[in-house]
Amino acid sequence: MSMSVAVVGASRGLGLSLARLLLASPQINHAVLTCRDPSHMPKDILSHPKTHAFPVSANDEESVASVAKYVKTHLNGKLNAVVHVAGVLHDEQVYPETSITKVKRDAMMHSFEVNSVFPAMTAKHFLPLLKAAAASPDDSGEPVYAALSARIGSIGDNRLGGWVSYRASKAALNQLIKTLAIEGSRVKPRPVVAVGIHPGTCVTDLTAPFRKNVDPATVRSAERGAEDIWKIVATASAQGVSGKCVAYDGTIVPP
Ligand SMILES: NC(=O)c1ccc[n+]([C@@H]2O[C@H](COP(=O)([O-])OP(=O)(O)OC[C@H]3O[C@@H](n4cnc5c(N)ncnc54)[C@H](OP(=O)(O)O)[C@@H]3O)[C@@H](O)[C@H]2O)c1
Fold this sequence. Notes:
binds NADP nicotinamide-adenine-dinucleotide phosphate; eight-stranded mixed β-sheet; alpha/beta; Rossmann fold; NAD(P)-bd_dom_sf; 15% strand; globular; oxidoreductase activity; 8 strands
């Protein structure tokens, strides 16, 4: 089966490694790739014949909608999988807080915009394309919406506190995924799966300031992280992991 897959946040880190993996796969014939400025994507990715690259920003719903519109008119209106990778832990607007007393309103709003609202907008505009794949006789299997979450978003697993904005915004993302899984289970003739993914600690810009605090034996490359992400997406099913957050090694992160 030939598949069309979208990666939201394909410019660097895990998203870029995932894009490379998909472009090299004979099973994928269209890769819809987004980031804020696609001109910053590596040339080999941009010029690949399977690539469809678009500018998308977390604070611009119309940019998400216009990609969905393109898929509708140019790629038979369907996607087999959507992987929302984009997320923020630190940038010019936010940095992990050590205590609730350090939380700044604008920084927290920014975390929620990128980590919770943005994946919701991706789900809103791309769900019809996943539903179209679920209904298509040319496709088999259950279409998948996946979003990169983090173990730190688990309420049950919270033993340390801190990192308030990132933690709370990923917890909100996990609730979105559960809600989407319930909605997806009602899609006929095949359900749409929704799954969160905890990729473990991988070597990317996001983890750069914090990796010194992590056991080096547990740190993995972005390429390895992307392989684990795709394994989870490619095997996800409504009866199995839908609505859950799955770690890179296949274990379930407690809600
Ligand atoms: N790396 C890890 O160890 C780790 C661990 C747990 C969870 N995660 C999760 O995995 C995902 C990917 O992480 P990563 O390590 O690959 O991060 P990264 O290297 O920092 O890449 C972040 C991605 O998010 C996009 N992004 C950031 N802010 C954005 C905004 N305002 N609007 C649109 N796109 C935006 C970036 O696009 P631009 O190039 O346009 O900025 C980029 O594609 C994140 O959701 C993160 O929370 C990662």
